Amino acid sequence: MGSRVAESKPVLRLDVRDVASVPMTVTIGERSEPAADHPAIFDVDGLNVHYGDFHAVKDVSLQIRKNEITALIGPSGCGKSTVLRCFNRMNDLIEIARVSGSIRYHGVDLYGSEVDPVQVRRHIGMVFQKPNPFPKSIYDNVAFGPKIAGFEGSMDDLVEEALTKAALWDEVKDKLDGSAYALSGGQQQRLCIARAIATSPDVVLMDEPASALDPIATLRIEDLMQGLKEDYSIVIVTHNMQQAARVSDRTAFFTVDMEQTGQRTGVLVEFDETSKIFTNPGETRTEDYITGRFG
Amino acid sequence: MTELRPHFHDELAQLEGDLVLMGEQATAMIRDSVAALAAGDVAAAAEVIERDDPVDDLYLGVHSRWLETMALQTPVAIDLRLMSVILHVNSHLERIADLAVTVAKITQASNGLPHDPTMVSHLQEMGEIVASMVRAAMEAFAARDLTAALSLPEMDRPVNRLNRNMVREVARLAGDPELLEWGVRMMVVARTLERAGDNAVDVAEQLAFLLTGEFREFTDASHHD
Predict the structure, then answer these.
(1) Domain presence at residue A240
(2) Does any domain span residue B219?
(3) pLDDT value of position A8
(4) Does any domain span residue A45?
(5) Are A245 and B76 inside 8 Å of each other by CB?
(6) Structural domain that includes position B63
(7) How many distinct structural domains can be found in chain B?
(8) Does residue B156 have a pLDDT over 90?
């Protein structure tokens, strides 16, 4: 599906489906081993984010791997959403945000001067906490992105494929012209996922994608994610630790450090396989947080 | 440190407290069953058998609350490992109490038979060591003392040696049919005490898993010393 979208402004020259792996190194968690079938797509090194004078995220280094689900967890204010937004340069939209350090995406400096943020967001889609369908029909919600991108193939096929992958097709195939607002919250969120994957992204970022949904809709989204990771790499921010445990392959635990100045800064404490984080974490701070002894 | 799950962690502490109680009762049952055997005291043996029901009640109570806690609290990390350990230790302690009952029943079955004082003293020695092993394993568990847990295999060695020697000691009795019958029964007692010792080592292995997150057997049953 990647070749269907005409790139009108091919500044970020990546055919993400064919890119070979970035050299793998173990950064955090000594039991993590290079995985040839899950090469790194993001290589984050010494990431710092400031909002004006506020140091939001300090010295984060980690890798996001292909066709895996990576969960970012931690208490409020730990910077996990800030880190997530760095992956598709959403922080560029905040005037006072300043990003330093290195994020290499398939080996390309994501914040390089030649990289077009719009192209970045075409490769790296995002699903937000609250379902935010456009005030349009179900069909048009999915078709909107590909149309903008100059898609020239069969739009009907593309819409069906995206809705099928988002596990929504069977529920909406007879009412594609109906308003997206007529759908339930869970259906609207799956529509947003269909919309995100309709432009054939490489990565889907999810910021609390199920926090506004009921438990059944939440489980449907979680199950959907397991299917989506066959085609996409997923990074999810979640406050729900059990959700991170259920859906993700790797988990990054962030917390808040108090600087000498009294300022609170988000730091990465531990990044490892989810099974290890939730059975035998390497850091006491991780264990205290996930077992409810946080304070 | 802010405790965000006090109810859950209180329940874990109570489950562990019940295990401590079971450990004390199982230790006493092993000690008293061997004492009844050495004294040929059938009444004392019956009293040991009666004490198995309270241990079984504790076992069933821990198991029931364990299931409820797993279903409702979804523990993770060290809490998850502790839950796993509680389930295993619960079984080991219940088993040790059952083994004490086996010794007591053999005492009843051997009533009236002649006995060999040397073999009795060896069984008393085994019983003392096994009782101290169970106590040491539970104390190590309560104190989260890995070094103490690792000492259990060393404590178990004389028990294994005494058990192996039992065959030769029984063979010495072959000339007297009644004494031989008693000796064969005592061989079962020795084997029973040896199994109780192994269960104590298993408890210590569980503690090592709790503390390190990695499970390994302290000794390989297929390559006993």
Answers:
(1) yes
(2) no
(3) 38
(4) yes
(5) yes
(6) 6-212
(7) 1
(8) yes
Please check the confidence at residue A27 and state whether its pLDDT lies above 80.
no
Size of interface A-B (CB pairs under 8 A): 46
Looking at the complex, report in whole angstroms how far the Cα of residue B81 sits from the nearest Cα belonging to chain A. 7
Give the pLDDT of residue A19. 33
Residue range B43-77, pLDDT digits in tens: 999 999 999 999 999 999 999 999 999 988 989 99
- To the nearest whole number, what is the mean pLDDT of chain B? 95
| Contact residues, chain B, for A293 at CB < 8 Å | 1-5, 9
B77 → closest Cβ in A290, A294, A295: A290
CATH of residue B103's domain is 1.20.58.220
Secondary structure (DSSP) of chain A:
-GGGS--SS--S---TTTPPPBPP---S-TT----TTS-EEEEEEEEEEEETTEEEEEEEEEEEETT-EEEEE-STTSSHHHHHHHTTTGGGGSTTEEEEEEEEETTEETT-TT--HHHHHHHEEEE-SS----SSBHHHHHHHHHHHTT--S-HHHHHHHHHHHTT-HHHHTT-TTSBGGGS-HHHHHHHHHHHHHTT--SEEEEESTTTTS-HHHHHHHHHHHHHHTTTSEEEEE-S-HHHHHHH-SEEEEEEEEEPTTS-EEEEEEEEEEHHHHHHS-SSHHHHHHHTT---
Q: Is B85 part of any domain? A: yes
Residues of A numbered 217-256 whose beta carbons fall under 8 angstroms of chain B's beta carbons: which are they?
241-242, 245
pLDDT for residue B121 is more than 50: yes
Residue A66, domain member (yes or no): yes
Chain A positions touching B75 (Cβ under 8 A) are 291
- A295/B81 touch (CB, cutoff 8 Å), yes or no: no
